[in-house]
Design a protein that fits this description.
mainly alpha, 0% strand, 4 helices, extended
Length: 119
């Protein structure tokens, strides 16, 4: 087809990005074990319990991300912000747990910022 023929080149339709079901879900096993050793050094946890905790973390993160994405969509915005994540967390978690999660997140961000400034 020559350029001057008046017909336009048709683009192939975009492929949808692969979904998370195509991949193995993220594993938080090593992090769960590290946190348990920090909190309770003398305790142990079975592999089955670590797997259950990892699954719980995956489900919770997926729910928070979905809710935050819906907040962005309802607000007719294109960018997911820290505020959207906080709002989704407050909506999904019970009152005391969401308050604790927000304070822990703020502390983690402050620690990260402090360490990144030193370098």
């Amino acid at each position: 087809m020559a350029r001057g023929s008046g017909q336009r080149h048709r683009r192939r339709p975009r492929q949808m990005p692969s979904t998370t079901s195509d991949h193995r879900p993220a594993s938080f096993n090593s992090y769960i074990i590290k946190i348990l050793r920090e909190v309770q050094p003398s305790s142990q946890i079975s592999a089955q319990a670590v797997g259950a905790m990892s699954s719980l973390v995956n489900v919770l993160l997926d729910k928070i991300a979905t809710e935050a994405g819906q907040l962005v969509h309802r607000g007719r915005r294109r960018t997911l912000s820290q505020r959207d994540i906080q709002t989704a967390t407050r909506l999904l978690l019970p009152d005391s747990l969401s308050t604790y999660a927000m304070s822990a997140a703020d502390q983690a961000v402050a620690t990260y910022n402090l360490r990144s400034r030193r370098q």
